[in-house]
Amino acid sequence: MSDVETIVTNKAREAGEPPAEPIKKVRKRELKKEEIISSAASCFMERGYHATSIDDVARRLGSTKGRIYHYYASKTDLFFDVHRVGMTYLFDALDPALSTKGNGATVLRAMLLAHAQAMLEHHTFENVVAQGVQLHRFEATTPDQRETLRELISSRDRFENHFKEAIAAGIRDGSLRKVDISVTAKVLLGGLQWSIFWYRPRENDTSATRKRLAGKMVDPLMEGVIAPRN
Q1: Where are the domains of the chain?
Q2: How many other β-carbons are positioned within 10 Å of the β-carbon of residue 168?
Q3: Which CATH number fits domain 1-72: 1.10.760.10, 1.10.3210.10, 1.10.10.60, 3.30.450.40?
Q4: Going by C-beta distance under 8 Å and a sequence separation of 6 or more, which residues neighbour residue 207?
Q5: DSSP state of 18
Q6: pLDDT tens figures, 41-76
Q7: What does the DSSP assignment read for 153-199?
Q8: 8 with 33: CB under 8 angstroms?
Q9: Which helix (DSSP H) or strand (DSSP E) does residue 39 occupy?
Q10: What are the pLDDT digits (tens) for 3-18?
Q11: What pTM was computed for the model?
């Protein structure tokens, strides 16, 4: 089972599936939804939200619009699901780094490395996340969409708060310079997110090469916040 399929399937379980429905039937339906989400992510990355249409996603799938509208009432709803999957990737990557042993600077570095590598590993989805829910404040017209928008904003805030807490801990233990915590967290995350504009996956890329690249991205950012040694 792929990562996207797992995320979508877990979401279906949380919502509650009809008990009499066979598992194979559920999985077949979720696989179709997974394909739509992955194809939509590629379209949103390449063309941007406003220039992408449901027709574009259908053409990439080699399918009809009806197949997409079976799951999504609008392009906005589809974008929200792509965004949600992208955020799940980020939280999943960050979780192990949060338990890193060491001072605040050590923990922050581990978190930034995890985030950078996730940005590279899931480049398509993270491109969509970086487009930002702010693009859709005026697209959310239904109560369900507005609730989803609040959920996504809250999710992004929770993610950023982890970095704020690590920076605060580093300032307290003296491993990081005394900086504006909120601004610094946004600058660090923004520096890594900028990779969506210059990073292009290559055929010979591996997890190891992306890990090395993540290190090169994080090093100059950490240099700006590390406390000077006496």
Answers
A1: 1-72, 74-230
A2: 14
A3: 1.10.10.60
A4: 121
A5: -
A6: 999 999 888 899 999 999 999 888 888 998 998 888
A7: HHHHHHHHHHHHHHHHHHHHHTSB----HHHHHHHHHHHHHTHHHH-
A8: yes
A9: helix 23-47
A10: 565 565 555 455 444 4
A11: 0.80
